[in-house]
């Protein structure tokens, strides 16, 4: 017995020594990779122009995330093709967690039904991290127009079908779809004027080049007392806390005009799970911080947070729903 026990101890010691010479297991390697991440600055790609609502949120997030990661988070604006150019850029990056994307309902759930070749597949090429925020759209008009209510717009459009213009950030954008929904529910026909982003469209509304547009609420919270624009209604089921004086479309006599756009952060599909988890943990900590939320909510954002799976589930759900809406409304690119 003693001989057998001694032999067993020798075999165990030999096996332990042999194992110590082997490479780390995949799980250990992943854990070390997440612990060391990030070793260099991280890019946050915003697929829209600088100065817009998406850009404003991204810069607030980048500042806070950089503090938590211990590395700079640099915002890169890559606008074009209704968000497709910037999104495709992230989809082609290395799956290492160093390039993040601020995605939205438009780029992830709407565009696949409008573009034959976007340059990326939102499900196959991108990995959700967390939802970040959502916001409704609002209908604004130039103060020089005779439109003081939604009813005024409806009455004028019925007298001149297809002749009154409304702007948006681009074909297929949530602002465009809000306008399509408004026309459908009100039984009117307007003329859509797409822009390369919301800022130039807003400039033209304020200057009187076009009479009205749909735009994300945070973009015009600061203009509530402006002598350039008038805010007629919000595309939500309730009034916004940041704009309590703006009625809903339902209050204005047009039911069913509800248009909220969600946003979230993603990385290249295939990014190690440990890095995705670390990013989710750090970003959710920022999103649930009362000080961070307070500033953004005052600007019209509804701050959200989620697990990667919850974000993925919503994306797949809305990808299907948006496809059905676009097909039913026969929405096509101009």
From TrEMBL:
It comes from the Bacteria. Keywords: Signal. The keyword Cytoplasm does not apply. InterPro entries: BUG (IPR005064), Bug_dom1 (IPR042100). It holds the Pfam family TctC. Residues 1-31 form the signal peptide. The keyword Amino-acid biosynthesis does not apply. Belongs to the UPF0065 (bug) family. This is MFS transporter. It comes from Bordetella genomosp. 4.
């Amino acid at each position: 017995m003693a001989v057998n026990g001694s032999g067993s101890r020798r075999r165990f010691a030999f096996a332990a020594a042999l194992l110590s010479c082997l490479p780390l297991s995949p799980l250990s390697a992943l854990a070390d990779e997440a612990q060391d991440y990030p070793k260099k600055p991280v890019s946050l790609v915003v697929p829209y122009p600088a100065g817009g609502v998406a850009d404003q949120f991204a810069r607030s997030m980048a500042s806070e995330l950089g503090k938590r990661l211990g590395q700079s988070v640099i915002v890169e604006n890559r606008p074009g093709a209704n968000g497709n150019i910037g999104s495709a850029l992230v989809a082609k990056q290395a799956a290492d967690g160093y390039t993040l994307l601020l995605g939205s309902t438009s780029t992830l759930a709407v565009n696949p039904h409008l573009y034959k070749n976007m340059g990326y597949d939102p499900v196959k090429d991108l990995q959700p991290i967390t939802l970040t925020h959502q916001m409704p759209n609002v209908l604004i008009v130039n103060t020089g127009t005779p439109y003081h209510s939604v009813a005024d717009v409806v009455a004028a459009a019925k007298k001149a079908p297809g002749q009154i213009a409304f702007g948006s950030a681009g074909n297929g954008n949530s602002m465009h779809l809000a306008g399509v929904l408004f026309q459908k529910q009100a039984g009117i026909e307007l003329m859509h004027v797409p822009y390369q982003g919301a800022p130039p469209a807003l400039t033209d509304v304020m200057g009187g080049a076009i009479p009205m547009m749909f735009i994300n609420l945070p973009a015009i919270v600061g203009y509530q007392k402006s002598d350039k624009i008038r805010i007629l209604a919000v595309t939500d089921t309730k009034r916004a806390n940041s704009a309590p004086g703006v009625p809903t479309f339902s209050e204005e006599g047009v039911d069913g005009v509800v248009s909220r756009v969600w946003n979230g952060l993603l990385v290249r599909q295939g990014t190690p799970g440990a890095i995705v988890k670390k990013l989710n943990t750090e970003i959710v900590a920022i999103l649930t911080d009362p000080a961070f939320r307070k500033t953004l909510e005052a600007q019209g954002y509804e701050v959200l947070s989620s697990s990667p799976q919850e974000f993925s589930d919503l994306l797949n759900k809305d990808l299907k729903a948006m496809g059905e809406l676009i097909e039913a409304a026969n929405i096509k690119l101009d």
